[in-house]
Design a protein that fits this description.
The protein is α/β, with parallel strands linked by helices. It is built from 14 helices and eleven strands. It folds into two domains: 170 residues, Aspartate Aminotransferase, domain 1, CATH 3.90.1150; 212 residues, Uncharacterised protein PF07075, DUF1343 (Rossmann fold, 3-Layer(aba) Sandwich). The longest helix has 19 residues. The protein is globular.
Length: 403
């Protein structure tokens, strides 16, 4: 149970609900790639046996599941592939996904988050093309792009086509920020050497990865672009319905909170509101100076709302309020949260140090974050050190932007 210390929290809830209502009340201004392909009569898929990487977010602008629309359009949909969280997006983070049969189409669904995270030759046998249609959330550590990369590699090895049906980046396409990733820390929670907030769509990332040699095997790639999307759009401006991308990303604003807290959330002993309607909207940690941290955040990030709260078990913390229309550099929030938590109780680093998989180092992109936190480096200095790499990536990505 959270006990807000002041009234802005209620206002934040009203604000977030208002965003959702706005999104649902607009007619779609943006046509996702699936709609563009359907308008073309599914021409790229005609006469081919098709495999589709999809889940509950794979919808047309009118809300019809992509796989249903394809079947109704005469596409020979031979196999489905499910990412982390499963075909319906209900399986918790990090939990294995099994092979099932799709209740909507009757087509077999192969898991790409179980025994393998890459389509096997047996899964691809008989297919002519592998199609990717998932809604990403714009942070490097979210695994849907990793699933896309593994699918591209498998398609290249099997010498079949790979098609991306593009979708908006809910964090927008202009801002690039956050730490880079070192090669040794490339993993399924950081598959590509891009800025943590990369500001690219799945289609743009696919083009860049294929061109830059970031794949173990290049593929015959094509991207079906959206129509009507511009890089500065917030999600409500797209007019598209938001569908929970995973259990803790329930609203169109949720990707912003994930970006602001997702790195810091790999410390130990935290309460992030996971599995509640306020997932990633709070950060509670042992012995934290909540009032001091809230004031520091408000001073460092104009437009960010932060206030002290009491989280589970009376654990002190801060509640965050983010307006997606404000140009706030949100990734840096992680640095301030981590620095405050380690300063208050250094034992929060025990969990990542014991973690054989090195999840914090993988998500951050380097183990250097441990040194920064234990040496007393200021969060402002840490964020400043990210800026050079982000600027380089901003330049490198420019030739791959499609919108």
């Amino acid at each position: 149970m959270i006990t807000p210390c002041f009234g802005w929290m209620l206002a934040a809830v009203v604000f977030l609900c208002g965003l959702g209502a706005t999104a649902s009340s607009l007619s779609a201004q943006v046509l996702p790639g699936v709609d563009v392909l359907r308008e073309r009569g599914w021409d790229a898929l005609r006469g081919k046996r098709v495999g589709l990487i999809c889940n509950q977010t794979s919808l047309t602008a009118s809300g019809e599941p992509t796989r249903v629309a394809m079947r109704r359009g005469g596409v020979n949909l031979a196999a489905l592939f499910a990412p982390e969280h499963g075909i319906d997006g209900t399986i918790g983070a990090g939990r294995s996904v099994g092979n099932v049969r799709d209740p909507l189409t009757g087509v077999a669904v192969f898991s790409l988050y179980g025994a393998t995270r890459k389509p096997t030759p047996a899964m691809l046998r008989g297919l002519d093309v592998l199609v990717f249609d998932l809604q990403d959330i714009g942070s490097r550590s979210y695994t849907y792009i990793s699933t896309m990369v593994k699918g591209m590699e498998a398609a290249g090895e099997a010498n079949i086509e790979f098609i991306v049906l593009d979708r908006p980046n809910p964090l927008g396409g202009e801002t690039v920020e956050g730490p880079a990733i070192e090669r040794e820390w490339i993993s399924f929670v950081g598959q590509l050497p891009v800025a943590y907030r990369h500001g690219m769509t799945a289609g743009e990332l696919a083009r860049m990865a294929n061109d830059r040699g970031w794949l173990s095997s290049r593929c015959r790639l094509s991207v079906v672009p959206m129509r009507g999307w511009s890089r500065g759009m917030t999600w409500p401006q797209t007019g598209l319905r938001w569908v929970r991308t995973s259990p803790n990303i329930p609203r169109d604003i949720s990707p912003f909170y994930y970006a602001a807290v997702g790195i810091a959330g790999n410390l130990g002993g935290l309460d992030l509101g996971i599995n509640t309607p306020a997932a990633f909207q709070r950060f509670c940690s042992p012995r934290l100076d909540a009032a001091g941290l809230a004031a520091q955040l408000r001073a460092a990030f104009p437009g960010l709302r932060a206030g002290p709260i009491s989280g589970d078990g009376g654990k002190p913390g801060v509640a965050l309020g983010i307006d997606p229309r404000a140009d706030t550099q949100i990734i840096g929030v992680n640095a301030y949260l981590m620095a405050a938590a380690v300063r208050a109780d250094p034992r929060v680093l025990d969990k990542p140090r014991r973690d054989r998989d090195g999840l914090l180092w993988k998500v951050y992109g380097s183990r250097s974050i441990e040194r920064s936190l234990t040496s007393g480096e200021s969060p402002a200095a840490l964020v400043s050190r990210w800026e050079g790499a982000a600027a380089r990536f901003r330049s490198e990505r420019s030739s791959f932007l499609m919108y």
